[in-house]
Give the backbone structure.
Amino acid sequence: MMKPLFAVLLIMLAGSGLAQGWEKPAQPLRVVPAVDLEQYMGSWYEIARLPNRFQKECAGEVIATYTLREDGRIGVVNQCRKEDGRIQRAEGVARVADEREPNTKLEVRFAPSFLSFLPFVWGSYWILDLAPDYRYAVVGEPDRKYLWILSRTPQMDDATYEEIGARLADLGYDTEKLTRTQQGTGGE
C-alpha cells in the first residue's frame, strides 16, 4: 500500500509547480580574471540594465563615477535624471570582496559608514565582461538579479551591444529583460 501511495505522490509532485524549483541551477557566474583598478576609475555611462527597485525613479542619463581612495577602497557616486528633470545622486564605497578571489569581485555599500560592519549592507559588484581598452564593462552579481552594461561614452554601437548580449545569454542572463538607458550626448 505504501509504494503505490508514494508513486502517486511523486507523480503529483512532478506535475506540480513545486517540481519546477528542482531545475538544474545555473552555472557559477564567471568574472573577468583581473582589473587594473586605476584604469577602471572614472565615469561610466549606463547603456542598459535589468530593471531594479533602487533605480525605478531614474528616467535617464545614468552615470557612475569611481575614484580610488587613499585607503585602497573605491569612492562611488551614482547619479541619474528623474522624470521631473532633477538629478538623483547616491554616494557609496566599494572594496575588494575577498583578497583570495579576483579583484573583479567587489562589494559596494551605500548605507552609512557606521553600518559597514553589517554584511547585508554590502552588495556584490562583479565585473563580468571588460573591453581590453576599458571602453565598456558589464557588472552583475552571483544571483543574476542585477546587471548593468556600462560604457565610457554615452552611446554604444549596436554591434558591440549585441556581442555583449550574446555573452550575457551564455552566462545565464535573460537579456530580453534588459532596458536601454536614455543618455545625453556628453557630460554630467
